[in-house]
Write a structure and sequence with these properties.
This is DUF5691 domain-containing protein. The chain is mainly alpha-helical and about 500 residues long. It is built from 26 helices and four strands. The protein has helices spanning about 1-15, 30-40, 45-60, 85-95, 100-110, 120-130, 135-140, 145-150, 165-170, 175-185, 190-200, 205-215, 225-230, 235-245, 255-265, 295, 310-320, 325-330, 335-345, 345-360, 365-375, 390-400, 405-415, 420-430, 440-445, 465-490; strands spanning about 80, 115, 265-270, 280-285. Helix 5 (about 100-110) runs parallel beside helix 26 (about 465-490), helix 9 packs antiparallel against helix 10 and helix 12 (about 205-215) runs parallel beside helix 14 (about 235-245).
């Protein structure tokens, strides 16, 4: 409407430069518009505001609702069973709580039973999917045919339309492609790798980096040629990321080069005691006379900036991180336990021990991770996912006071349920110093065991009044959310 466009223009340039007139106003408003403009008792700003209010309401009243020709088509009959009444009541509480972590927890359980949410919850679930892209695949599965039908009336809900994983990979958003690639690498790794190779040349550098980061934890010998080919990429970040991935694949050329170097650089010498009655093994670290420059081209620094380290020790330390710990067992014909004891006996070995621990994490060696954790010589958070429950709890408990942030990072990143022992450690720390944990527990509620809710009031709290008050509210929120989680558990086990 021209009259409304004129109002917008006047609002932008000011009433002192232009005045409203009656020329473009609809005929039905001409009389009242004239009375507003010619009213001597009003200043120009008041006249403008009255006229703007009149035209705004006139325009709004004249808008016709959108029409969709397919609106009369009924939704298809559902193929999946609806969830139970108890599960529906739990979903109602989850949606009222507006907790995405808890909603994901409910959706995963519903989807694992090949069930769908009742029709009355479908719009709310689609709205959540619109806001949270991470939940879209789960929501699509749990809204059934009704959700697929409703997506035809709202382009923001198109994600609920029935699509194959390959269609999502080809046409989905980056977040959707990430999710489907992650899933397919678990269920059908050959197909996932084929997808990456097929579309690689069409991806931009940023997307390539994202896809490579998803592939990296799954990388194996079948990826060596592909990763080596990335050395020709223009992006330095991609080149470095590909190099890091190659460093964690046993049998890759770079790892084989590192192993060959270490055979010469690290040796075990037998030393005789002063009286000559006994001999003991000691670790020796000395670079060979000639070291190939190819080694240093892989990102290994030649010189140490720390005066407590020799250059030889520093070079060996860097390389050791990218050689499977089993290499040492084969080279020296010693068990992991015996090797760790050997490393712990000398000053050089103690310096190199963190590199050995890092290697156990890089190559996901569960045996070495367990042996290292039992000896408690050094802490490495990347070992935590590799450990059985009891050794993990013992390892965390021993190092928790000095490595709280690392443990918290692991707790935030893991998809596994927390043990009661780790949960108690974290909650006791939060009770004493609650401020760093504001909002944290609501994001990880799916991992927290329900049973801990009965203990929340028993943890020692800070003497500071503000901290006491903050923890009181925080613990009440945790308890309430855990009650909903327990409701979900019970609903899907009936």
């Amino acid at each position: 409407m021209q009259a409304w466009d004129d109002i917008i223009n006047i609002a932008m340039i000011g009433t002192d430069k232009k005045q409203p007139d009656t020329i473009s106003v609809p005929a039905s408003l001409a009389e009242i518009t004239t009375r507003i403009i010619t009213g001597s008792e009003k200043n120009r700003e008041e006249q403008f505001l009255q006229l703007a209010s009149l035209l705004y309401n006139y325009q709004r009243c004249g808008i016709s609702p959108l029409k969709k020709e397919t609106a009369g088509t009924a939704a298809p009959v559902e193929e999946k069973k609806y969830c139970s009444t108890h599960a529906a009541l739990a979903l109602r509480d989850v949606l009222q709580d507006d907790n995405h972590s808890l909603l994901q927890y409910w959706l995963e359980r519903c989807d694992s039973r090949t069930q769908i949410a009742p029709a009355r919850f479908v719009p709310a679930l689609l709205i959540n999917g619109e806001r949270n892209k991470k939940l879209r695949l789960l929501i699509s599965s749990c809204v059934g045919k009704r959700g697929e039908w409703l997506s035809g009336f709202n382009t923001a809900w198109d994600f609920s339309a029935k699509q194959t994983q390959e269609e999502i990979w080809q046409t989905g958003s980056l977040e959707e492609r990430q999710e489907v690639l992650q899933q397919t690498l678990v269920t059908d790794p050959l197909k996932a790798r084929e997808w990456i190779r097929q579309t690689w040349q069409q991806e931009d550098a940023a997307t390539k980096l994202v896809l490579l980061s998803i592939l990296a934890p799954f990388a194996d010998e079948s990826d060596i040629d592909f990763l080596e080919g990335l050395s020709k990429e223009k992006s330095k970040k991609l080149q470095l990321f590909a190099l890091e991935s190659l460093r964690t694949i046993p049998g890759s050329p770079i790892v084989l080069m590192y192993e060959s170097f270490l055979r010469s650089a690290v040796t075990i010498q037998k030393e005789t005691s002063m009286l000559g009655f006994s001999k003991k093994n000691t670790l020796q670290c000395k670079l060979p006379d000639a070291v190939s420059e190819d080694l240093y081209k892989t990102g290994i620094d030649k010189l140490s900036s720390d005066k407590t380290w020799t250059d030889d020790e520093y070079v060996v330390f860097q390389v050791m991180q990218y050689v499977p710990p089993s290499f040492w067992e084969k080279t020296f014909q010693l068990s992991a336990e015996a090797l760790l004891e050997l490393f712990e006996k000398t000053d050089t070995g103690k310096k190199l021990l963190p590199a050995l621990t890092k290697a156990a994490a890089n190559f996901r060696d569960r045996n070495w991770a367990n042996v290292i954790a039992q000896r408690r010589s050094v802490f490495q958070k990347e070992l935590l996912p590799l450990l059985p429950l009891a050794p993990r709890d013992s390892y965390i408990n021993h190092f928790f006071a000095k490595n709280i942030n690392d443990v918290m990072d692991y707790a935030k990143e893991t998809d596994e349920p927390w043990s009661m022992e780790m949960t108690r450690l974290i909650l006791r720390e939060a009770a004493k110093k609650p401020y760093p944990y504001v909002g944290f527990f609501q994001k990880v509620i799916a991992q927290i065991p329900v049973a801990v809710s009965t203990e929340l009031s028993s943890y020692p709290v800070s003497e500071d009044q503000y901290s006491r008050s903050l923890w009181s509210g925080m613990s009440e929120e945790i308890s309430r959310t855990l009650a909903i989680k327990n409701q979900i558990n019970n609903a899907f086990t009936i």
